[in-house]
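Handoff note, outgoing to incoming analyst
You'll be picking up this chain. Sequence as last confirmed:
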Amino acid sequence: MTHKKHSSRVRGYIEGYYGRLFSWQERSTIVQSLASLNLNTYCYAPKEDLQHRFKWREAHSREWHESFSKLCNTAATTSVEVIAGIAPGLDFNYSTDSDFDRLLHKSQQYLDSGASKILLLWDDIDDEFTTDISLSEGTAHARTVNQLSAALDQPIWTVPRVYAAEIENKHNYLQDFFTELAPQHTVLLCGNAIVASKVQHKDLTQLSHSEQTNESVGTLKHQTVVWDNFYANDYCPRRLFIGSWNGREEVADYLINPTGMPFTDKLILDVVVSTHTAKNKNDAWVDALRRHGVPAAFLDIATCFSKPCFGDTVDQSLTETTALTHMHTESDTQAIEEAIEHCLWKWKSPLAREWYPFIMSLKHDYGLLRGSLPTDRILKTQTGFLARHLLKDS
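Most recent structure output, in case you need it:
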């Protein structure tokens, strides 16, 4: 494989999930954790910040900028860069100069407050592109990035609307986007799927439609950072994933988009760094759990929290889930039940409090599997829709 050389690796955390919004103190804690792990990037792009996405034209308050500036100053002392994201794609008007002027002004405010770079996001928007201009969607998005870069006199980071291969590439979006996008910019991509089982160099070159010199060798025109949703659970908030970071051995530049639970995310970052290239990933993973105070009993139920159902290996995930849920021996059942009870009632820490609802849900689900959860408990613990489904034949 041939990679374009870049001055430094990008490795860190992206606050880019739905459903949670960090406090400034929590962000500072994550920045300190990044520094302790020799990671170097914190990307601010929370979907729950109204001024980031839904009301992107509105400026943040003076108090917000003071807090953001303080975060940037703290990060700078630890050699961590703060990247400021703006997501104008829901309703950006390409036909007039007014929206671009707002975008430029807001970007300059972020830079003046201490952000190192600007990230322009076009993700999670309608694929029906309507505008008065005679440009394709991909060209319009890339041209806006180029224009902003020229106005700020610095490269821009960006997420295209089609950021994973499983997203339909309507109207040649990717070809137009990467043809128009100037080479100095950095692009964030997920790979084959939004939640991918593996991320390899060829997945990124295929997405970017870079020129291939042969079947296995490709050079990326742009610096490409993997936006990794391996640990994200905003799309399945009853679940938690904290397993070893597998299938990413070829990834050099990455941002982890995790859960928004600060103690959990600090553990996840440690797991990522510890297992990325470890010869024995399991040992490195167990050591990371121990460093964060996870009790040994958790290992008896850890399989239930190891990894998500990946978008590119659904059939494999179905097979693994079927094997996992087969009836256990009596000794297995006892170990699982004892581990659940220990983690629920005897493990006390900030991390344990974050994990409590997930372990309690596991207790209920395991009871359903075993047929030991009584009717009144099903009614108490499940939504009305699910309870009705579970009890329809009883």
